[in-house]
Amino acid sequence: MGKNQSGFIKPKLLIVEGKDDFNFMLRMLDHMGVDDVQIHEIMGVNGLGAKLGAIKKAPGFSDVQKITLMVDCDADAAAREDAIKAALASVSLVVPLAADVRAAGDPSVRYSLIPGGVNIGCLEHLLMESFAAHPTVPCLDAFLQCVNHPAKFGSNDWAKARVHCLLSTFSEAGLKIGEAAKANYFDFTHAAFQPLRDVVTDLAT
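Predicted structure:
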């Protein structure tokens, strides 16, 4: 499905932050042949508890068996984990002990921080890692260095700027991440995307 629906019609639910995450993971599900997972976009993590509460009240939620919340780690993994756990607890969902650990419940719950492991950052870090060997990357980095981009913005903004520059070099210039994913510009088998494949595999099994 291409957008949030008013209710839930599949037994497994992947909750993501924004449209880029939604569209990229939609393509990942297609690539992996998984069709029993519904993706729901929450438009950022601010007010996460209230957003989870609204999800619980949506039609069909009582039939959801597994939930995974996938969000960017950003700059502080510990703070992000604390916020997620507090939000889950505030709406009486089971709280996993740590990232990537599924807590048994009805429904069971897992949360995953992107880019995965102990790394800080966001989805765009994984996208650029998948293109690390691409001959265009040194050129776009040189351009961004020339306009002093790294000094102006933090790590996530730097990664986002690199991705947007990269997308502008594709034959269909101006594509957004989800559009580029749909057009198969990303290699979904690349090692960089293992954390995302792990999210899908855990939900699908």
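Summary: The longest helix spans residues 19-32.
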